[in-house]
Design goal:
Helices cover about 10% and strands about 30% of the residues. Helix 1 crosses helix 3. The protein has about 200 residues and is α/β, with parallel strands linked by helices. It folds into two domains: about 120 residues, no CATH class; about 70 residues, no CATH class.
């Protein structure tokens, strides 16, 4: 599905696509990813302007991955599709560090047609993932990329994969341990042994 219908850099507005009005839920990390793709294409001279959306977090820190956020730059707002709907925004948190705002405050509904009601259901999830070696061997994590390292090749990644998230399940035959790793675009992992991904809650 598409997330962005159009972008107005002068007005600092990102207009959401019609697909977002019928989706079960919206992970706004995809707004960031499509924003990067549009800038890479530069069809309308997008790179003349600073980025309107950043992604922060998702960095490796001592075996933990820090929470990931969609960070709207100063004054930038998302404009919902112009039809009545109640989008569920989850799991990636939506914030503006410059303005100290989050969630619904970063949507602009002022331009919607009279009578159109958009009730934004904002349910962010803040969590990290701790990688623990359980097989006794060494685990090669050298291929795990941080978000900053992956930015340059995200456009190619998304073009190659229709889905924006993938799950890889590895079953350890010797330990009878099932490992499920959730990968975001641009993040990869090489496993030379069985690892367990354990959700841990990180305070905000």
């Amino acid at each position: 599905m598409a997330y962005i219908a159009s972008e107005d850099y002068t007005a600092k507005r990102i207009y959401l696509h019609a697909d977002t009005a019928t989706a079960t839920s919206l992970d706004l990390i995809n707004v960031y990813l499509e924003h990067i793709i549009r800038r890479a294409a530069n069809a309308n001279g997008e790179r003349r302007f600073p980025r309107m959306v950043l992604s922060i977090g998702n960095e490796s820190a001592g075996g933990e991955f820090t929470p990931q956020y969609v960070d709207m730059q100063n004054g930038v707002r998302l404009v919902p599709y112009n039809t009545s709907h109640a989008p569920l925004i989850t799991p990636t948190p939506l914030i503006s560090r410059n303005e100290n705002l989050s969630g619904r405050d970063l949507f602009d509904r002022s331009s919607l047609t009279s009578g159109v009601e958009v009730d934004i259901d904002y349910r962010p999830e803040i969590s990290g993932f701790k990688i623990v070696n359980v097989s006794g061997g060494s685990t090669d994590l050298s291929s795990i990329e941080t978000k900053s390292q992956a930015d340059a090749r995200q456009a190619l990644l998304i073009a190659q994969h229709a889905a924006t998230q993938a799950k890889i399940e590895t079953i350890g035959a010797q330990s009878n341990t099932t490992t499920v790793t959730t990968l975001t675009p641009g993040q990869t992992t090489t496993q030379s042994s069985i690892i367990t991904v354990t959700p841990t809650t990180i305070g905000v």
